[in-house]
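Structure (tokenized):
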């Protein structure tokens, strides 16, 4: 895997790489995103979701599909502007969905 940042700076869980993450850990990573939590959290740096989505080629099918799904819905267009904004409502809904799936 190629990482723009040092792995230990992105994932703060000892010994973990993106390929090893559980759904609960993906939820924690989303909550750490800079659009929601500018300083990250105890488990992930605020840039971790960006690394996961844009700079990580995943082999695990469930994570790869999740990565693709998030990429399809993470950005919303702002009327009258040529830029997109991160859809934090979508991200928080995804956190809830991942936590519900984790409990099953």
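Design, position by position:
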């Amino acid at each position: 895997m190629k990482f723009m940042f040092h792995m230990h700076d992105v994932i703060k869980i000892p010994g973990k790489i993106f390929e090893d993450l559980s759904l609960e850990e993906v939820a924690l990573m989303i909550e750490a995103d800079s659009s929601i939590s500018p300083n990250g959290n105890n488990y992930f740096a605020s840039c971790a979701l960006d690394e996961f989505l844009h700079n990580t080629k995943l082999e695990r099918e469930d994570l790869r599909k999740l990565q693709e799904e998030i990429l399809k819905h993470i950005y919303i267009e702002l009327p009258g502007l040529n830029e997109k904004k991160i859809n934090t409502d979508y991200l928080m809904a995804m956190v809830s969905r991942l936590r519900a799936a984790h409990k099953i």
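Reviewer-requested clarification: Residues 1-5 have pLDDT under 50 and may be disordered. The first helix runs from residue 7 to 10.
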